[in-house]
């Protein structure tokens, strides 16, 4: 185990809420301050610690993915660009729900509960009520609270936050942040679908060892690791074909292979696999092997996510969902109106939005033709004419060339039967 790993394990064993300093870690574990600093930063990336302005670095409870629609008080502090006035030790806790305190004291009591965050102005009686009910406080308008309230918050380890923004502004900021989290939640990442069984070969293994591992596991490709479990290569059937059984795999493996992290989007991996012709990619964390992701994993994952109900919409969803889709002889036709969100600063349809609509139509056309996932290889647009608000638009996408790996789509946009844009799209298909 490396010093870095020892320090991270030490940090993970600390009580939640403990303050962490580079100097203290260095003294406790007899390491240099540089080594301690790097390990603390790695622990922060792994979400075991958090650095909070005017508070310092503290051990936090790692929020699991299933709770991604929740936020901690620390995250709220960052969202509202605020300061912490008291209750520093509770800053890592997860917010149960938000309550706006624009009501009488008696009414406030009906709505707050343990773990809530009450958004309110400088109202001493409401602050006291909130803390008595184990509820944290966010004070708006740049106001503060009494020393009595700060002392009470410190005793109960309930944070009191302060922001210069008004209530309407911060509720908008929090709502936007939660919406973005929901979108991220819907993005399928490596960790969701990867194969976590650690089948691998070591640097000192031979071709004979590869063949034995193939027979035992049923797999044909393996990561190759060093003594620290760091990935140094990949070995495949093509590499060992015709080689002597006692030949070291380090002499024939693919060195310095492409790797991905646990949070790499699956759609991005599909793009890499298509472009690089790869069927398996090692998954690493801090250079160490965590598992592998295969082309079959990616295809299953992409199909799974398409069948799931969406909790939040991206901008592309919002725009394309306003259009009707109709199948044609060679592809599809999208019909819709130019809406305010599609306009640029000059009041005409944004060229970027039109390109997005046309590429979406092309992708839908290919999906209708053959139920395979694809990535855009090239998109050539010949011209764009300006469109005004509420202009009706039709986007025709016709598949004109079908190959084993490539599709070509002719895309034309019309307004009042006049061509307003023309493009040609080429895509690569993702096959097993």
Automatic annotation (TrEMBL):
Residues 194-250, 253-313 form the CBS domain. CDD domains: CBS_pair_DRTGG_assoc, hot_dog. Pfam families: 4HBT, CBS, DRTGG. Keywords: CBS domain. InterPro entries: CBS_dom (IPR000644), CBS_dom_sf (IPR046342), Diverse_CBS-Domain (IPR051257), DRTGG (IPR010766), HotDog_dom_sf (IPR029069), Ser_kin/Pase_Hpr-like_N_sf (IPR028979), Thioestr_dom (IPR006683), WH-like_DNA-bd_sf (IPR036388). PROSITE patterns: CBS (PS51371). PANTHER family: CBS DOMAIN-CONTAINING PROTEIN (PTHR43080:SF2), CBS DOMAIN-CONTAINING PROTEIN CBSX3, MITOCHONDRIAL (PTHR43080). This is Putative transcriptional regulator.
